[in-house]
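Human: Not sure, check this?
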Amino acid sequence: MEVNQQLIADKLGISRTTVSRCFTNHAGINPDTRAAVFSLASELGYNYLEPRKSGKKGSSSNQQTLAVLICSNLEEYNSTEYESPGFQLLPGISEYAQLNKLQLDIHIIDPKEDNLEEGTYKKLLKDKKPLWDGVLLVYPFPAKVIEGLMRLFPCVSLVEQFGAQDLDCIDVDHHRGVSHLMQRLIDEGHHRIGFFSRRYSVEPLWVYRRFSAFVEKLTRAGLQFRPEDVLNLYKKDTYSLDESYQKAIQQTKDGVTAWICPADHIAYDFISVFTQYGLVVGRDYSITGFDGIPNATDQFDLTTIQIPYREIGYQAARRLHDLLESRFSATQHVYLNGKVLAGDSDGRIAVEA
């Protein structure tokens, strides 16, 4: 099947003219539509960038191009159970690019690829390096990849990266968000709260940020920190994900009444497994997430933190544009407030005396 603009239009249920206008920064295109078109084009491998008329980057006769690299397993990025946070960042990026006549080039890259000398990165740099003016990084990347990209381009990350203090970053305020969730649980009478995460192929600084907020709030509230109630966090842990669910079930039976999950998709999977074992959310335990990602398959509303995705995407694109224009030389780390979305997953649980 030939990958062209008509195929993209058919898959999204829009006209071919709309698709074409997305790639030319037409002022009348909705940023959300444009983000969806760019994302699908990347998934299908459709090349919508034209070679520069001049070999010189930043030439006034050419649009500047921002590469958007998303470090994610493609299956997870395209999950039908809940929308990927990476996709939700694209409308804000698209909106800024459209207003400032910037072109976007979006690529989803497997987290297992860990250097620029082979695989997808090698091919991308061979084909795209002359076209890219700067790079936006979505999700954590391997350290060697970040170091290599920062040597080649101005870069801005949309989530804080390990070992990259000189990398500009626009992110959510993890500490404030988790603190609000913990306070809700404490106000509902929960005194033994667990932390359940999952392991990732790229070390997730955002999980550690949210865990540190969890520990800080426990300490400030005078509650006991129990290492056995923290699962899938420490590098020394050798149990599997399935075994961690069994541990969580046992801890719940032993007295954990609420669980903090550092991401919504972790909470949704947690609830699904617990349901299989007859443990009902809101009755047998409380749980919160973080992200604000709806789950179409469940009949409850998860209490979580709504990340301001659009604003983060917009501000990250603006910051990268500033760097391209040699504005603001000092590295910036900007953290935006999230919003509590109160659901029905974190209420008071009846505990037997």
